[in-house]
Write a structure and sequence with these properties.
By secondary structure, the chain is of the alpha+beta class. The protein has helices at about 10-40, 50-65, 140-145, 150-170, 185-200, 220-260, 270-285; strands at about 70, 75-80, 85-90, 95, 105-110, 110-115, 120, 130-140, 205-220. Strands 6, 7, 8 and 9 form a four-stranded antiparallel β-sheet that branches. It has a three-stranded antiparallel β-sheet with strand order 3-2-5.
Length: about 300
Amino acid sequence: MSQEKRVLAPDGWAVLPVTLLLFAGAVPVTFWFLLSVGAVDRPGGVPNFWLLLVAVVVWGLAVFSCFGYFTLQPNEGRVLILFGAYRGTVRDAGWHWTNPLNSKVRISLRSRNLNGEKLKVNDKRGNPIEIAVVVVWRVEDTAQASFDVDNYKEYVEVQSESAVRHLANCYAYDHGEENETTLRSGVEDVSAGLQKELQERVAKAGVLVEEARITHLAYAPEIAGAMLRRQQAEAIIDARQKIVHGAVSMVEMALRDLTEKGVVDLDEERKATMVSNLLVVLCGETEAQPVINTGTLYA
């Protein structure tokens, strides 16, 4: 694996006077050569080709040095490559100069968002679900991002999709076993697991995963209706359990108060009738209609 090597490039403002001196020196040399060419018509006049050679060299150096300047904004890096060999990475913001023969590859070090598409996968129980995630990442090692993978952006996208599919297969959508983490109930744990797995996958590309979150989670359309009815049924059962539990407590309290205060002496049959009537009133979905009994309980 490659490893980033940070280098300090000379400040561009410090090298600029040298470039200006080269241009300033090339002008008089060129002028002297032109004077020697103008003296050809005179007796014994011969052009000074040495001046021409010096002028070409000085002009070439001046122009050549101009290609070594480059700028860097904050949170940017330049990977320097000389004849296929990695020379280092410049990370300091500002105006710099380097060997013009160096290839200067710009890499952004800023945080980026990867908004993943909706994927249809199977959860731990085999139920088809739809899931999508958002990943916040940035380049940490420019050498690995440049040389160890072909395209680090595409690499992050592909590995993110692979990690999401594997994550969905490890957890149930909901209604897990006792103390089992599910995709719906254990959002924090699932996100932490996703970030850890994704970091292991993209570390080869010199990428640091700062955050990974689930943005969309739902049953697949083909089973969404059936699962919705199941959830509704479970909600109704839970509500009924609470209603019955509360009704039994109220009936128990009523019988206890009647007995303790001596309001009425009830035998077991009357208690059973009273309990039945109270449960009907408390647990019924419609309002109870009073019925006047003109006889007795035994008639």
